[in-house]
Amino acid sequence: MLEEHIKKAYNESAKGKRKGDKHIEVEKIREYILSAENIIIPNWDEKKLKSINKILKEFGLPKAKGLKIHTNAADLTRMPTITKALMAVDTTDADLIIARGRLGAPGSGSMLIIMDHKGRILSAAISSPHIIHGKSLEKAVEEELKTALQRLGL
Amino acid sequence: MLEEHIKKAYNESAKGKRKGDKHIEVEKIREYILSAENIIIPNWDEKKLKSINKILKEFGLPKAKGLKIHTNAADLTRMPTITKALMAVDTTDADLIIARGRLGAPGSGSMLIIMDHKGRILSAAISSPHIIHGKSLEKAVEEELKTALQRLGL
C-alpha cells in the first residue's frame, strides 16, 4: 500500500522532479496508522504506556502493548529512539510502533516516533530535555504523541 | 569536549543507571553550538539559506554557507534530512551542520536537524507536511530553527 507511493516518490527524486509531500502520500500514512491492529511500545515504563494508551484512545486507535526488552542498550547508539523502535520491528509482529526516548547525543532531549512494520518513519515529535521543560513524563509523552498524530492531519 | 560526557552517559546506560539528560550535557551542547565557526547548510535552495541565516544572526551565530551537492539523492533514503546532514559531514570541514528536509517516508513531513562535525545529532525540530500547514518555506524553516535552538535553552 505505502510501497507504490514510495516508489513513485523515489522515481521523482531520482529525476530531480520531486516537489514535496503529496496529499495522497499523507493520506496513505493516515490510513496506515488508523488501520493498525497491533501497536507495540518498546518500553519498560508503565507510565509511558499509560500516557500513550490514553492518547491512542482519544484518536480511536486500539490499545498498545508494552515490549519488555533491554532498551537501555539503545542509549548507546546515535539515535536511541529510532533504535528502540527498530528493536520492536525486529522482535515482534507489530504493525505500528510508538517509541519514545533520546533524540541524539546525551543532552539532546527527547523524541517520539511512529514507525511502521518495516521500520519506516511515519511521524515524530520532539521535546526539550526534561531538565529544561520541567513537565512530568506523562504530560510530555501525551503532548508528543498528540503532536505526532495531529501534524499528519489526524 | 562532548566525548567525555558521552562516555559517562554510555557507561551509565550500560549499567542501567541512566536518569535522563543532565544540565552539564545540555550546557556542553549549547557551548558547542555557540562556538561554531564554520556552519554549512547542505542545500541548493537560496530561500532556505537566507531564512537560516536570518535566525542564526538573531542568536549571535556566524553566517552559514550553502553546500551545493546533489541532495535529491538523500530523498531515496529512509531519513532524508539525516542523510543530507551526513553528506555535509563527509564532504566539508564544517563544525556545525543545519539540514532541512523530509523526516522519513514520503508524506511524513519535514525535519530540521543540527549536527556536529562527527555526525552526532545535537538538536532538531519537526513540522507538518507543507500541504497541511500551508506556511511559506521561509516561515517554516525560520520557526524550525528557532525551535531547535530554543529547546536547548538558547
Question: Can you characterise this structure?
Answer:
Chain A has 154 residues and is of the alpha/beta class. In chain A, 44% of the residues lie in helices and 18% in strands. A 5-stranded mixed β-sheet of chain A has the order 2-1-3-4-5, with helices on both faces. The first copy, chain A, is globular. Chain A starts with a helix and ends with a helix. The model of chain A has no long low-confidence stretch (mean pLDDT 96). At the A-B interface, helix 1, helix 2, strand 5 and helix 5 of A face helix 1, helix 2, strand 5 and helix 5 of B.
The oligomeric state of the chains shown is homodimer
Number of strands of chain A: 5
Query: What is the strand content of chain A?
Result: 15-25%
Biggest sheet, spatial arrangement of strands of chain A: 2-1-3-4-5
Shape of chain A: globular
* DSSP helix fraction of chain A: 40-55%
Uncertain ranges of chain A: none
Cα-to-Cα separation, first versus last residue of chain A? 19 Å
Largest sheet of chain A: 5 strands, mixed
Radius of gyration computed on alpha carbons of chain A: 16 Å
Structure classification of chain A: alpha/beta
Individual helix count of chain A = 6
Major protein interface: A-B, 54 and 53 residues
